[in-house]
Amino acid sequence: MHAQELMRMGANIRLDGRQAIIAGRSRLTGAGVIASDLRASASLVLAALVAKGETVIDRVITSIADTKRLRRSCRAWARRSGGWSKSMVHNEGFLKLVNDAKSRVRETDIEGYKGMRAHDEKHLLVDVREDHEFAAGHVKGAVHMSKGTIERDIEAKVPDKATTLVLYCGGGFRSALVADNLQKMGYKNPVSLDGGWRALKESGLELE
What we know:
Layout: H1 2-8, E1 12-16, E2 19-23, E3 32-34, H2 38-50, E4 56-58, H3 64-81, H4 92-102, E5 106-108, H5 110-118, E6 124-127, H6 131-136, E7 143-144, H7 150-157, E8 164-168, H8 174-184, E9 189-193, H9 196-201
Parallel strand pairs: 3-4, 5-9, 6-7, 6-8, 8-9
Antiparallel strand pairs: 1-2
């Protein structure tokens, strides 16, 4: 099963019966994947360490002992390779909330967003990260309204509920939750940017 999950990250794997034929790739891409057991967890974590962008691994651990072994293996790998990539393991309850929200909201990736800008599609870019994240760096011109306060402040700052709101967080999860809440408040065009700040940093867009 984890071969198919690795393929979602861009691995060049061809399955032939009980064999996997693998061709090397110069880059893997972060994705949402599911670990079926400890071996799958280890494989996916290692892939996430070298992947571009954020990887979210659901069901990554099966026991406390497994967790300790997995952490030891990953720390040893990180020492040998020179560091960690930006991967994150989210709690199951949080992922359920996010996946539920994603089933209702519109999403775009970085290429889709750059296309919106190239075609001069009118929109407001909103950074929904925490204050310290925004202060550390953000897209030039982005409006900052963090998750938890945007629901309180949005109607005063953006009274036109037909406005296209492109929302970004660190990787696209919090922004999906915000987009869902804004739809419940009557906003017609919230868009969650999948890949979030990690994708924006590498997009070539002007940052502050």
